[in-house]
Amino acid sequence: MNNLGRFGLAAALVLALAAYRQGNQVNAAGGPSEAANGSYRVLAPIESGNLLLFPVVRADSKSGNPGETPFITLDEGIKSGEVEVTEAGRVQGLVRPRRTVPPQFHEDRNGGDQVNTLVLVNNSKRPLLLLAGEIVTGGKQDRVIAKDRIVPVGADPIDLSVFCIEPGRWTESSPTFGAAAKAPAHGFMVQPTVRERAMVEKDQQQVWDSVHGAISTMEMAASPPASSPRSGGGSSYDVAGSRALGTTSYAKAMESDAISEKVDEAAAPVTKARDQVLAQLRQQHAVGVIVAVRGEIVWADLFANTELLSRYWTKLVRSYAAESLSAGDTHAAPSVADAQHFLDAPAGGTETSEGDVGVYRYRELKSGNTETFVLESLLSGSGYDVHISKMKLITSERRTKQPQIYR
């Protein structure tokens, strides 16, 4: 099943997206109007432990599929020094000649740092692509990007919407932000349950709760079973041992040897043969992936082209692998048809839109128990969807099963 040569093709489907309505929420009981976004088809899955990853290709590779995208990623920009991120109170140090400090960062209006605000400057000669779920570490707390966006070349410092993923620390570890010290070359991204809380609920407490649950779940997965069984039979985890990391930081937990090893193990069938997997994905012109954990389809990430998917591949796979460490019910493995149905499910219901004129448009589409987020580039010569996230919402029942040992 993990043989990429077994990729099969399913029937074409159309991903329905909504028309842009700037700043308004629209009731779309009949479903939103469709955008010209080419159709997608799902390939046979790659198996990796509790994960099934269904590659997605375009039915028509010429339909809205740019051959090359101009973007620099957050990790590339931070590594090269062309992208700088810092606390709001340090904005003056980031301003370059001929640039101005936006009013919201003036000292008389905002004299200090804020949990949910960072300042970012793109000094690159390319537009910067930011994805919800990407982690930056440093400053007074580690943060996670709250939503997708594009930062154009030559832009003034921007107010970067973020959520804290390190409750309890508010002391500066470094003046600027970067990738975690032991992060892979492509950096860290939080797992889907944490991404969902940031993207959908947009609530700091819920993000903290999901971070607590994720860390404790990964710690228990990495801890050896306790010597004494639970009453009624079976083995239990040494909860005291699972707290040995002594951190509330998601990034630091992911850096720990025990958890990093467990995540690597969960992702091994994909990451150990990374070059081979990516070569096959490029050959198939894959632009995205649908993710199933323990037999339940939970997430999809689609990109403008194979090149962008390849640049985020390792980062995404490790986030999915971290999700697969969570405890929960195991379901029968979904089929290609099931994955197609998830992707094909109407995105109608309600829509909210925001963006930057001439730069990007970001839409949130709610329908039943799924939500779809679409980042569209409006830069000159573009006019295509750069990234699409689709998720199955976490039910109250699933959320209560997540351990909260830090609370």
| First and last CA, distance | 40 Å
Helix/strand order, N-terminal first: EEEEEEHEEEEEEEEHHHHHHEEHHEEEEH
Shape: globular
Largest sheet features: 11 strands, antiparallel
Radius of gyration of CA atoms, rounded to a whole number:
21 Å
The number of distinct β-strands equals 20
Question: Which range best describes the helical content: under 10%, 10-25%, 25-40%, 40-55%, 55-70% or over 70%?
Answer: 25-40%
- Estimated structural class: alpha+beta
The fraction of residues assigned to DSSP E strands is: 25-35%
Stretches where pLDDT is under 50 for at least 5 consecutive residues are: 1-38, 103-111, 227-243, 403-407
**Overall pLDDT:** 79
In DSSP terms (H or I, runs of 4 or more residues), the helix count works out at 10
List descriptors:
407 residues; alpha+beta; eleven-stranded antiparallel β-sheet; 20 strands; globular; disordered C terminus
